[in-house]
Design brief:
The chain has 441 residues and is an alpha/beta fold. The chain is 41% helix and 14% strand.
Amino acid sequence: MKHSSSPAAAQTPQERYRRSLEWLARAEAVIPLGSQTFSKSPASLPRGVSPCFIESGRGSRVWDVDGNEYIDFINALLAVFLGYRDPDVDTAVREQLDNGVSFSLPHRLETAVAEMIIDMVPCAEAVRFAKNGSDATAGAVRLARACTGREHVAVCGYHGWQDWYIGATARDLGVPAATRALTHAFTYNDAASLESLLAAQPGGFAAVILEPMNSDWPAEGFLETVADLTRRHGALLIFDETITGFRFAAGGAQELFGVTPDLATFGKGLGNGHPLAVVTGRHEYMQMMEKIFFSFTFGGETLSLAAAAAVLAKLRREPVLATIHARGEQLLQGLARLIDRHHAAAFAAVSGHPAWPFFRLSDCDPYTALELRTLYLQEMFARGILVNGGHNLSYAHSEADIDALLAAYDEILPLLVAAVGKHDLHERLHCAPLQPLFRVR
């Protein structure tokens, strides 16, 4: 295995990220958190040893404002599915730009993209568009409440920023108590935890919404049992496929696992970075969209729809998923071998689907997982790898990119093992350790 280049000893983090830190100071003066997105904010990254602003991207690479190059395994929080500046997507967007962006009446692209989604997704019989995954999940829950005449919702996973969901998390400030009382979390791969919720409120649940998979595979029969419990209690089953949709299979996790929900939401990579989300499902439920209010000035914005049409066409035409899954298998198998080789299993593990592999850190005396994560990120960024623990693969990633990532792990895992063994992790840091934050999953 070819090793990655070690960080240049002559360049301090302050030198490497000088312009990033200058722009961060400017941003924090005018933008709360310094970012529009929590997971991109300085609160989520080790301050002083991380790039804060990206200037450009192409394929699997991005360049920060200091000119440092990275292989990007974050990919705009999974929104970039094919790679930066994908030529087919960019061409479609430029051609549509010449005709206009938003109009006074619907554009035919709304219908054309809806038809493509219906052709691919098992549960899809009608489609409504939005801009963010949070819009779509909130719309699906409102729809379920309207269809059932009930109010309570069972949740499992991360479903966005809006009151109905976020009120059930640690970030519930500003959410009315009455709203918080209507949302109830259950545990993934623990159908009994859902059954107890449903039994405690007979006839009270409008919906069960879950991510069909994130970092762990569903246990045998789990999704089927969830579907059965949900319907026996008269609620609607909603799959939040904001991430898994079009990534795990062309028809999403529902196609992969053979469990069809009543409603589903999609987003993230559908527009390869252009903002678009979807609520879809069976006609008998989707027709209620005509009675509830789910409406956006930019719901039919055409650049994102043109991008989505290009993404879906490419997904049908080229081996997009086969390629991404092959890269993921290369990563999962290679990283598992490195963890074993470097005797790092006390605090490190791999998990996830090949399209979304995870490197998981856990507490290891005397250090917390967050302290280990701080050193891990510091060293990955210094080696030109942009990663956050999950590996958000795109069609643009090559075998060489995965080799470079594994070479970085081959250097960093021994550092982590030594830091734990010698109890000198803090001496190896060039920043303060990350602090506990709201976890989205």
